[in-house]
Amino acid sequence: MLVVLAFIIIFHITSIALLFISTIDNAWWVGNNFYLDIWKNCRNTTTNTACSEIGDDNNSFQAIQTIQATMILSTILCCIGLLSFVLQLFRLKQGERFVFTAIIQMLSCLCVMIAASIYTAMHDEFHQKLGLGEGSFGYSFVLAWIAFAFTLINSIMYLILRKRK
């Protein structure tokens, strides 16, 4: 049982790391001379890199603010889930354990899914309004979808684990 608990803790910490990286790092959409995330748009020139924030001056970027909020909420919920897991491990009786943690992880999963889905649906519109050229989804976007899968699997593991001794 200790091996299973250690594996779940490592899996949960990995989920948190993936969420932090995908939320913070600047690589949701990348091209030859630019990179874009949910916070800023950076253009590379031969001498320097010029970055500008996204969404403050234009009402059409309300979807970006939704993506920002749901990614932050997902990261916070995942951290709270780890904390509640540790607290519930020693405090609750068998059968009652980890239900709250599973619900928190499921909410985290839902938030990251909403953010990545909105970005997937709206990325063409964002790029046209920002005047960006051809590019592809970056590793932060891919990590967001991987974090979605990890948080979903983690929430299911907590539900299964609640009955174990």
Automatic annotation (TrEMBL):
<dbReference type="InterPro" id="IPR004031">
    <property type="entry name" value="PMP22/EMP/MP20/Claudin"/>
</dbReference>
<dbReference type="GO" id="GO:0048471">
    <property type="term" value="C:perinuclear region of cytoplasm"/>
</dbReference>
<keyword id="KW-1133">Transmembrane helix</keyword>
<dbReference type="InterPro" id="IPR004032">
    <property type="entry name" value="PMP22_EMP_MP20"/>
</dbReference>
<keyword id="KW-0539">Nucleus</keyword>
<comment type="similarity">
    <text>Belongs to the PMP-22/EMP/MP20 family.</text>
</comment>
<feature type="transmembrane region" description="Helical">
    <location>
        <begin position="139"/>
        <end position="161"/>
    </location>
</feature>
<dbReference type="Pfam" id="PF00822">
    <property type="entry name" value="PMP22_Claudin"/>
</dbReference>
<feature type="transmembrane region" description="Helical">
    <location>
        <begin position="98"/>
        <end position="119"/>
    </location>
</feature>
<feature type="transmembrane region" description="Helical">
    <location>
        <begin position="67"/>
        <end position="86"/>
    </location>
</feature>
<keyword id="KW-0963">Cytoplasm</keyword>
<dbReference type="GO" id="GO:0045121">
    <property type="term" value="C:membrane raft"/>
</dbReference>
<dbReference type="GO" id="GO:0005634">
    <property type="term" value="C:nucleus"/>
</dbReference>
<keyword id="KW-0472">Membrane</keyword>
<dbReference type="GO" id="GO:0000139">
    <property type="term" value="C:Golgi membrane"/>
</dbReference>
<dbReference type="GO" id="GO:0016324">
    <property type="term" value="C:apical plasma membrane"/>
</dbReference>
<dbReference type="InterPro" id="IPR003933">
    <property type="entry name" value="EMP-2"/>
</dbReference>
<dbReference type="InterPro" id="IPR050579">
    <property type="entry name" value="PMP-22/EMP/MP20-like"/>
</dbReference>
<keyword id="KW-0812">Transmembrane</keyword>
<comment type="subunit">
    <text>Interacts with PTK2; regulates PTK2 activation and localization. Interacts with ITGB3; regulates the levels of the heterodimer ITGA5-ITGB3 integrin surface expression. Interacts with P2RX7 (via C-terminus). Interacts with ITGB1; the interaction may be direct or indirect and ITGB1 has a heterodimer form.</text>
</comment>
<protein>
    <recommendedName>
        <fullName>Epithelial membrane protein 2</fullName>
    </recommendedName>
</protein>
<feature type="transmembrane region" description="Helical">
    <location>
        <begin position="5"/>
        <end position="24"/>
    </location>
</feature>
<keyword id="KW-1003">Cell membrane</keyword>
<keyword id="KW-0333">Golgi apparatus</keyword>
